[in-house]
Every structure is written in structure tokens, then in C-alpha cells.
Amino acid sequence: MDEKGYLYILGRQNDMILYGGTNIYPQEIEEALKKCPGVEEVVVFGIKDGHWGEKAVACIIGNVSIPVLKHYCLETLSAYKIPRIFRKVKNFPYTTGGKISRREIRRMFEQGVLI
Length: 115
Hints:
By secondary structure, this protein is of the alpha+beta class. It has one domain (about 15-110): ANL, C-terminal domain (GMP Synthetase, Chain A, domain 3), CATH 3.30.300. It is about 25% helix and about 25% strand. The chain has helices at about 25-35, 65-75, 100-110, and strands at about 15-20, 20-25, 40-50, 55-60, 85-90. It is globular. The termini are far apart. The model has no long low-confidence stretch (mean pLDDT about 90).
């Protein structure tokens, strides 16, 4: 709450991806990808990009190929929302609250642990 009594709700602001000056909400991409046949779990996060600021990375658990995921995205998402990098993984790190730890999976990706 500020000095004028205005209440501001903070939360997932750090999850937002700033791609070429446009805000991308990872949850929107995740919801779209969850509807793709074969996708069991998905997490989307941003990584630094020298040209665009950030770009989206999608990590997927499920029985679906990367080309199928890309084609599905082309049909369901605006072009700027399509992840530039896709990775299939076997499992995700979770928070104590049972949610996928975006911070931890981003760290693993940046360290090259996710292939």
C-alpha cells in the first residue's frame, strides 16, 4: 500500500517475459501447450537475449515431438508468443507448495543441465 492508500498486488511480475518491448505471460503459453495432445506438464520461462531482451523457453514432459509442438503453437498462438526454444525433460523441480519451480528450472537451463 502506498502513502495515498492505493493497494498494489504483486506476485508473478518476475515471470513475465519482455520480448522486444512486448509483455508475454508464460501462463498463457502454458495453458495453450497443455491442450496439445501428448503434453503432460509444461513450464515456460524467459531467458536473456541480446537482441529481443528475453525469449521464451518451453520445457515439456510428455509423449509429443518438438516439431508437433511447434506446429501446434503456429496454429494456436500469436507469432511473438511462440517459444523460441523447446526442451523435453523427464521431470521438473517443485517448490514446497507443489508447484513447478520456474526459478530452479531456469537455473538448470542456464547451467546446461537441461539438454
